[in-house]
Amino acid sequence: MTTLHGQVALVTGAAGGIGRAICSALRDSGARLALADLDKAALDEAVADLGAGADSAAFDVDLTDDEQTTALPDRVRDHFGGLDVVVNNAGVRQIAPLLELSPADWRNTLDVDLTAPFVLSRAAIPGMLEQGRGKIVNIASMAGHLAFQNRAAYCAAKAGLIMLTKTITLEYGGRGIWCNAVAPGVVETPMTSAYFRSEQMAASIRANAPMERWAQPEEIARPVVFLSGSDSDYVNGTTLFVDGGWTAGKGY
Ligand SMILES: NC(=O)c1ccc[n+]([C@@H]2O[C@H](COP(=O)([O-])OP(=O)(O)OC[C@H]3O[C@@H](n4cnc5c(N)ncnc54)[C@H](O)[C@@H]3O)[C@@H](O)[C@H]2O)c1
To answer: Considering just the CA atoms, what is the radius of gyration of the chain in Å?
Structure first.
């Protein structure tokens, strides 16, 4: 099992469904945890859920604010004395036909899902270079690889995040920085559960996912731990699709 004993991991969107599972899995592997989110109350709840034994702290941040996002790695270093892993997990999603998607909604999705990972990585990398090692894991989506209707901004943002992952590796992979992405398929979380339980979505999962089921957040979290630790030291710039086979191809 991957061990991250004593390493400091910063997880954005830590109060959400997948974020909480990532934090629990990182805690189980021995990491100290900086939980970052916009939702202060949910963040405090997430820290409490990790249990008294966990070395964790909450950082409230609005990732659409470049100044707050840029300051976050230093806040984490001031608290823990280091920063080894950044998981860009926070995300938002609009479901609307293109003609009903406002430019403001488009921008907000791009801001949270793509620009924030860029700004946060840009702020975290110099310290990682100084310490000679650092791992970034971006939570993309299979929607960054396959287009889905009514999700123009989300698909564009996640495709961009997959490319950001590759460019970070190209520029810094030779200097002790790892940047990989996890691209989940359908995962049951508060973001999705009502929608995914609709008959339309259940039929889509049966038709498209060879495993004919959605994922639980823990099934996304474990690959994130793998990409955060030294077991994945020869994996860089890649996107790991954790989608039950959805993107493997189309049946008939
Ligand atoms: N749930 C799925 O089926 C699924 C599938 C593929 C990819 N993903 C991706 O996984 C990630 C987590 O998704 P989830 O399902 O846990 O969603 P979620 O809504 O449960 O959690 C998202 C978290 O991001 C936080 N957030 C949103 N905007 C923010 C901002 N401006 N600043 C700081 N925090 C902000 C929210 O407060 C929330 O806690 C997202 O990037 C999502 O796109 C989810």
So the answer is: 17
Q: Tell me, using a 6 A CB cutoff, whether residue 188 lines ligand 1.
A: no
Domains of the chain: 8-238 (3.40.50.720)
Mutate-to-test residue for ligand 1 from 24, 35, 38, highest number of ligand atoms within 8 A of CB: 38
Q: Both tokens of residue 197?
A: 């339980």
**In the prediction, which pLDDT does 201 show?**
84
Nearest residue to 229 (alpha-carbon basis) of 48, 46, 2: 2
Give the distance (Å) from ligand 1 centre to CA of residue 70.
Answer: 19
Of 71, 62, 50, 2, nearest to 230 (Cα)? Answer: 2
The predicted-structure confidence for 69-115, as pLDDT tens digits, reads as follows 999 999 999 999 999 999 999 999 999 999 999 999 999 999 999 99
Q: State which of 10, 18, 20, 43 you would mutate to test the pocket of ligand 1, scoring each by most atoms of that ligand within 8 A of its C-beta.
A: 18
